[in-house]
Design goal:
The chain is of the alpha+beta class. The protein contains 16 helices and 15 strands. The chain has three domains: 212 residues, 2-Layer Sandwich (Alpha-Beta Plaits); 58 residues, DNA polymerase, domain 1 (Orthogonal Bundle); 167 residues, Dna Ligase, domain 1, CATH 3.30.1490. InterPro entries: DNA/RNA_pol_sf, DNA_pol_Y-fam_lit_finger_sf, DNA_pol_Y-fam_little_finger, DNA_polymerase-Y, DNApol_IV, Rev_trsase/Diguanyl_cyclase, UmuC.
Length: 454
């Protein structure tokens, strides 16, 4: 993808043009060659090599690419009226639509939006195309999700004949031209600031945060910019009178750790731009899960059990494809007032079988069917390992081996004839709610991390 271009190292204060990659001879407002205003300048332009790349409104961008009639329209990708927003294009975001927003609120904010159900199979395919182009830059690629990753471009100048900043700019051009979507890139000396930089000037953004400016830059930012400081913890900090990173920069590590424990150490380090985490290409998977949001709230076992079975089969399929097994089964429920319940149970041995995931989840679910109406149900497994020691023969339950063999036979039939070729009594005839039309229809995550094992 990148032909060798032996480029002289120009004055970083002059920079280069993002559109034609021409090195600039002076501090002009527009490119000296093509007239573009997209000039990249920074005192540390040629010293930085940690990058974060994020696809812009990824799901919506793919749908607009495939249907040009949607180009100038507000588009929301989500799960119907009772689901949530997976992503929204920038036209919809201007009107207040945000990811994870309940769909009814999104449509109140943008009633003219076009709602499209997620096509995860397509998004994963496009995401892999982008990821392959990342690996053409460097083997040091750390996937974060289907549409973003960290890269370490140290030592790649000889390979590409360009410094990392120009490699990133050319990569962005290539993705837009070859795949038809846009990305935003951030460049810094550490992962924390590279991620922050990639959020600036979206879409088609390109931002740089250098080491010399890190502390002063962070001082002006709210505490919520620090990784791990969400709504709940920011409220805790606010009660203690801490709202800006500048306030954290004036505090001692011992004081912060005394108040907030391990999180206090993180606050101390990140508020000063100290982040020694390396880009790790081989991230271990954390969990495998599946969830779905109902069109109407449901409360009874008769309604919930078919959904639980279908989701358990999804999780099992993903585990088997990834050669993984999990020892802890996790049940997730969201009530009609948006309160979340999570329940888990640790197994004696790792499992990848739908039957064990379902039966364990069923025991957990029975204790939660107290008349509460639920809008979402999810099931997953954590404490992952390879499947070499999964599901050993059970000397107490003599029927477990037969159920495992039967499940293997069902898997073989489904691989050959499709998922609907064989169904259990739990889901047969239960309609869309218990029997989703495709494996990735739910809104839950697949394997977290790395996604490309699926």
């Amino acid at each position: 993808m990148f032909a060798a271009m032996a480029a002289p190292v120009n004055d970083p204060e002059h920079g280069f043009c993002r559109d034609c990659l021409t090195l600039q001879r002076g501090r002009t407002m527009r490119c000296e060659r093509c007239g573009s205003p997209r000039i990249v300048r920074h005192p540390e332009l040629h010293k930085l090599h940690i990058a974060h790349i994020d696809c812009d409104a990824f799901y919506a961008a793919v749908e607009k690419r495939d249907n040009p009639a949607l180009r100038d329209k507000p588009v929301i990708i989500g799960g119907g009226k009772r689901g949530v927003v997976s992503t929204a294009c920038y036209i919809a975001r201007i009107q207040g639509v945000r990811s994870a927003m309940p769909m009814f609120k999104a449509l109140e904010a943008c009633p003219e939006a076009i709602v499209i159900k997620p096509d995860m199979e397509k998004y994963v395919r496009v995401g892999r195309e982008v990821r392959a182009m990342m690996f053409a830059l460097t083997p040091q690629v750390e996937p974060i999700s289907i549409d973003e990753a960290f890269l370490d471009l140290a030592g790649t100048e000889k390979l590409h004949g360009l410094p990392p900043a120009m490699v990133l700019a050319r990569f962005s051009q290539a993705v837009e031209k070859e795949i038809g979507i846009t990305v935003s890139a951030g460049l810094s000396y550490c992962k924390f600031l590279a991620k922050i930089a990639s959020d600036f000037r979206k879409p088609r953004g390109f931002a740089i945060i250098g080491k010399e400016e890190a502390v002063s830059f962070l001082a002006d930012q709210p505490v919520t910019m620090i990784w791990g400081v969400g709504k709940a913890f920011s409220e805790v900090l606010a009660r203690d009178g801490i709202r800006t990173i500048a306030q954290l920069q004036k505090m001692e590590r011992s004081d912060l750790m005394g108040r907030y424990g391990v999180m206090g150490d993180r606050l101390y380090r990140l508020s000063r731009g100290q982040d020694d985490r390396r880009v790790e290409p081989d991230h271990d998977a954390k969990s495998v899960s599946a969830e779905t949001t109902f069109d109407t709230d449901i409360a009874t076992m008769d309604d919930l059990v078919p959904v639980l079975r279908a989701l358990s089969e999804k999780v099992s399929t993903r585990l088997k494809k990834a050669n993984l097994a999990g020892r802890t089964v996790v049940l997730k429920l969201k009530s009609q007032d948006f309160k979340i319940r999570t329940r888990n149970r640790q197994l004696g041995d790792p499992t990848r079988l739908a039957d064990r995931i379902f039966s364990t989840g069923l025991d957990l679910l029975r204790k939660e069917t107290d008349g509460t109406k639920y809008r979402l149900l999810g099931i997953g497994v954590s404490d992952l390992s390879d499947d070499g020691k999964a599901d050993p023969p059970d000397l107490v339950d003599m029927q477990s081996r037969k159920r495992a063999l039967a499940e293997g036979a069902i898997d073989a039939l489904r691989d050959k004839f499709g998922r609907k070729a064989v169904e259990t009594g739990y889901t047969f005839g239960k309609g869309h709610r218990g029997r989703p039309s495709r494996p990735d229809e739910d809104e839950g995550p697949e394997v977290q991390h790395p996604w490309e094992r699926i």
